[in-house]
Design a protein that fits this description.
single chain; alpha+beta; 4-stranded antiparallel beta sheet; 11 strands
């Protein structure tokens, strides 16, 4: 076999391959054997039909077609390996010559990873939010905990904001009561915004037994998006009572004996959260700066496939689970189709660039992924997918996606390498020193998850 590589552009090549006919012998034998098992010829046992009879009855062309289809993947792979190409996606193959007994010639155009020069990233500098936890932040956190331990007591008065009312609802569209537009005994906290627009104003001021009618756009059900006339009847009013903020509350709501200890713990938790946010910001902003430094040609077909995959996943998985169509989603987002297309393309380009650059750094730094890092990442991905670790792991193995997870972790480690040498300062101008455990978190969890989110792992060959 002879092969030659022609570079069409930085991301696409054309392979020209010539195969002497004798190298097709194994595929021809396999073709005759396959046809033998599929056809019946009177006078011959199944599987024992001579080749010359198959040629006469079904045509030599049918045999050659079967043999070539069997052989092409092997010869294409040999040509790729001979040319030391890093191909992406499936090739576009064109058989240019097929002379029985003499020669098979074909061309294959395919996208390839572009050669990327890793920029000097040691000078990257980014700014992140300052790690500041105010007294107001602590008070808000304690108040949220207090809200969780609130009790409700029935009252005989008009409903007010913050009260919990029990209500019956009936929705009409064009004067007709909807089959799915009736609900009884619904518990609703006034001011929570968890039901229909306009319901807060309708029930405020009503006592038990009171009734009101208002107009609202339905957020779900058979008449989603339509204006409906909604009748609401209050059957009970209950006031929410918050526990006193004292040591007794601290003992009830936590493992601490005093309110001061509870507040100190709340402050520490908020600081940990902000440290995590700082690390995440650093990783995201360093990545953005890294992408600005490198010139990365984008394969056109790969980009088109990536855009289509992202659109498909959004429309058929994410929006489907929420019961939304793409048109409704764009309406909610206030975007035109053109804006959505441009945004999706931009995200896809960023994902491809991210993967290409970080893969180069993985190779340059000779980064490896150990079992502990892979397991930790798998557990995080399982949690975000709503599956158990065992279910997620089984799905990954059955789908042949283990290399995908390994790639995510490796790219996360590559990004951690860049973050480590970057200068990170906060909004107060203070240099942020990531502690060892925080750096480890970036390496094994945060960066890997962020890279997976950016790339969506659809650009792998």
């Amino acid at each position: 076999m002879k092969s030659a590589v022609e570079t069409l552009n930085p991301t696409r090549v054309r392979l020209t391959v010539e195969v002497p006919f004798e190298e097709l012998k194994d595929s021809l034998d396999a073709a005759y054997k396959k046809i033998n098992q599929q056809v019946t010829v009177k006078g011959f046992r199944k599987g024992k039909i001579p080749a010359r009879v198959i040629d006469q009855r079904f045509g030599r062309g049918a045999v050659l077609e079967e043999a070539v289809n069997d052989a092409l993947p092997k010869f294409y792979t040999e040509a790729v390996n001979e040319g030391e190409l890093n191909v992406l996606g499936q090739p576009e193959v064109d058989i240019t010559e097929l002379k029985d007994g003499e020669l098979l010639a074909f061309t294959a155009e395919v996208d390839v990873r572009p050669e990327i020069e890793i920029p000097d990233y040691s000078g990257i500098e980014v700014t992140v939010d300052a790690l500041e936890v105010s007294d107001e932040d602590v008070e808000k956190a304690v108040e949220q905990l207090r809200e969780r331990f609130a009790s409700t007591n029935p009252v005989e008065r008009a409903a007010a904001e913050g009260d919990v009312v029990t209500i019956d609802l009936q929705a009409k569209v064009d004067g007709e009561v909807l089959e799915d537009g009736v609900a009884e005994g619904v518990s609703y906290t006034i001011g929570s915004g968890e039901l229909l627009d306009g319901i807060d104003a309708a029930v405020t001021g009503l006592e038990a037994g009171g009734e009101a009618t208002f107009t609202s756009e339905l957020k779900g059900g058979s008449a989603e998006g339509k204006e409906a006339e909604v009748t609401v009847k209050v059957t009970a009013v209950a006031a929410r009572e918050l526990p006193e903020l004292d040591d007794e509350f601290a003992q009830m709501a936590s493992e601490f004996d005093t309110l001061d200890e509870l507040k100190a713990d709340s402050r520490k938790r908020l600081e940990n959260t902000k440290q995590f946010d700082q690390a995440t910001q650093a990783q995201e902003r360093v990545l953005d700066e890294l992408l600005k430094l490198a010139e990365v040609p984008i394969p056109e077909k790969l980009l088109a496939d990536e855009v289509q995959t992202r659109k498909h996943n959004l429309e058929h998985h994410q929006l489907g689970q929420m019961g939304l169509t793409l048109d409704k989603y764009l309406e909610i987002q206030g975007k035109t189709v053109e804006e959505f297309e441009a945004e999706t393309s931009e995200q896809a380009i960023k994902g491809i660039k991210t993967q290409f650059i970080l893969d180069e750094i993985v190779n340059k730094e000779k980064l490896n992924v150990n079992q502990e890092e892979l397991t930790e990442h798998l557990m995080r991905r399982a949690a975000s997918s709503g599956m158990s670790p065992d279910q997620f792991a089984q799905a990954v193995v059955e789908g042949g996606q283990v290399p995908m997870l390994v790639g995510e972790v490796a790219r996360g480690k590559a990004l951690a390498v860049v973050v480590e040498v970057a200068k990170v300062v906060d909004t107060n101008g203070e240099v942020v020193e990531l502690e060892d455990d925080e750096e480890e978190a970036i390496e094994t969890v945060e960066a890997a998850e962020a890279v997976a989110e950016v790339t969506e792992e659809k650009t792998e060959a």
